[in-house]
């Protein structure tokens, strides 16, 4: 059992190429899964900021109307 498991992990002498390829694949897969969540958080944060600025703009007095009177 130990010999077959060891030969499996050795990948016929190509383990130095195969295991890093698996590692890169899973890292890319994880990033591909997380990227939409990060993007959604960023977009929501930007929208909240825009809405807050828009509300603040509505609440402050207009300079043009004060200057014209």
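Sequence proposed for the structure above (69 residues):
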């Amino acid at each position: 059992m130990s010999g077959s498991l060891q030969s499996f992990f050795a990948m016929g002498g190509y383990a130095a190429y195969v295991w890093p390829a698996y590692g890169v694949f899973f890292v890319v897969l994880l990033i591909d899964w997380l990227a939409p969540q990060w993007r959604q958080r960023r977009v929501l944060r930007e929208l909240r900021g825009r809405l807050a600025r828009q509300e603040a703009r509505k609440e402050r007095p207009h300079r043009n109307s004060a200057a014209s009177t």
